[in-house]
Amino acid sequence: xxxxxxxKQLVAAxxxxxxxxxxxxxxxLLGDPGxxxxxxxxxRELEREGMVPGAFHAPxxxxxxxxxxxSPYFKxxxxxxxxxxxxxxxxxxxxxxxxxxxxxGLPDVAHVAGGFHAWKDAGGEVAPRPSRx
Length: 133
What we know:
By secondary structure, the chain is α/β, with parallel strands linked by helices. It has helices at about 5-15, 25-30, 45-50, 65, 90-105, 115-120, and strands spanning about 20, 35-40, 55, 85, 110.
């Protein structure tokens, strides 16, 4: 079965209307108290490769529910007046997620071009996934 609109088209359409930060610009935001990095990757990816230091982990499948203040799953971090910089492994999931959050009305959301791969390749800091003590 051929799809009318595949993943490549979805990602391209999202990238055409969202803010994509070059990895060097994203790296410059690390440590800025007005910025929250949001890691969308699966927990196994975080355990295997680490994550951006201080990033908030929001599994892609729960993101919309965690962002919506009317959802029983709402996470208060998404109610803060901060800039949200999303990333995944390669920039595909984060592009789609950024478009969705933009559509939902989150005011300041962007994603990292090339995702965590690009972050690491550019010498970005990497921290282990925090323990869940």
